What does this fold into?
Amino acid sequence: MKLLIFLAVGLTVCQAAEKIEENCVKDLKLDEEEVVKISRESNTPDDNEMYGKYYLCVFKGRGIMNEKDAFIKKDIEVLLNEVFFYPTLAEEAKQNITKKIDQLCVPIHETKSERTAMKFKNCMIGIIKESKILPANIA
It folds into this structure.
């Protein structure tokens, strides 16, 4: 069974990104369905070590997070465009969401990389859910 794509939005992303996510699930021996469920939440405990490792693996694999645990804005924009922003979404809405993620999520930095990754994921999903751009069955 193919892994449902990162953050379970059911949109098509490039095969390389999908492969990263599949490898992270496989390497960490995680349950795909549980990853899908956790990916939709904005309140996953940031001390959830196993899923923190998953998001760290995905974010570093996609280039969203560098070796110093800093987030890379241009790669976050690629993720947003590939996974969350559907083609007809107004440019102003995209810019507002991206700006809010830049302001509230990009500065996140904890002493543990896994915790940084999990807090970023929660922050980003919270902003996306708040924006109401996703269908109700996904949000």
DSSP finds six helices and no strands in the chain.
